[in-house]
UniProtKB/TrEMBL annotation:
Reaction(s) catalysed by this chain's protein: RX + glutathione = an S-substituted glutathione + a halide anion + H(+)
Enzyme class at the top of the EC tree: transferase
Cited SUPFAM superfamilies: GST C-terminal domain-like, Thioredoxin-like
Taxonomic placement: Bacteria, Pseudomonadati, Pseudomonadota, Gammaproteobacteria, Enterobacterales
Record-given protein name: glutathione transferase
Stretches assigned to the GST N-terminal domain: 1-80
A single GO molecular function term of this UniProt record: glutathione transferase activity
Keyword vocabulary terms for this entry: Transferase
Domain of life: Bacteria
Length: 222
């Protein structure tokens, strides 16, 4: 049976969602983040990078969310429900699969990191300086970039309910983690299409089952 190495507050939540959508049975091996929010060393016994998600299936060990989702779709989506057939929608599908981690998540991770510069474990004596540096980076660069990306995604979802068309696809599964993070910590208002997409996701029984299996869903730093 397929095994998911699941870290709390991590991208592996979307792998559980994908498996619930596909109806694929799976086992979960659970890991808890350390106080520094990093994954425990035990994950390095499964994959050298020591990060989650990692999936074991059919003798393969797979890492990286996009690669895992593509594997799951190609292997288990026998009815081709989670990859569009229309030429333009296939282009959109491929774009969002790569955009999630290639463009959006690095900015969100940077915002998380600079937001911690005024907090432990930063030494007490330099926290005030760290906080000022973090705010400076946010105001000079990060907030503008995140605003641009948020408005771009908002505009794309004005034309369709899901990222690659009229039906949910693995592109939506891949985008779930960065979109939830963007809405949680982006500080950007007036995103009705993104909020409506998030509500559609949260209403799906498969999403709810994935939460039940993986535990309460929250993002690092919340």
């Amino acid at each position: 049976m397929l095994t998911v190495h699941h870290l709390n507050k991590s991208r592996s939540q979307r792998i559980l969602w994908a498996l619930e959508e596909l109806g694929v049975p799976y086992n979960i091996v659970r890991y808890e983040r350390q106080k520094n929010m990093l994954a425990p060393d035990a994950l390095k016994k499964i994959h050298p990078l020591g990060k989650s998600p990692v999936v074991e299936d059919n003798g393969f060990i797979l890492a990286e969310s996009g690669a895992i989702l593509e594997y799951l779709q190609e292997t288990y989506d026998t009815e081709q429900r989670f990859k569009p057939h229309d030429a333009q929608q296939k282009i959109d599908y491929r774009f969002w699969l790569h955009y999630a981690e290639g463009s959006l998540m690095p900015l969100l991770l940077m915002k998380l990191v600079v937001g911690q510069l005024g907090k432990p474990p930063v030494p007490f004596g330099v926290r005030s300086v760290g906080k000022l540096i973090g705010k400076g980076i946010e105001n000079a660069f990060l907030n503008k970039q995140l605003e641009t990306h948020a408005r771009f995604i908002e505009g794309e979802l004005a034309h369709r309910p899901w990222f690659a068309g009229d039906e949910l696809s693995m592109a939506d599964v891949q985008m779930s983690f960065p979109v939830f993070a963007l809405l949680s910590r982006g500080g950007i208002e007036n995103l009705p299409n993104l909020q409506a997409w998030k509500k559609r996701v949260e209403m799906r029984p498969t999403w709810k089952r994935a939460i039940e299996q993986g535990g309460p869903f929250s993002l690092p730093g919340e």
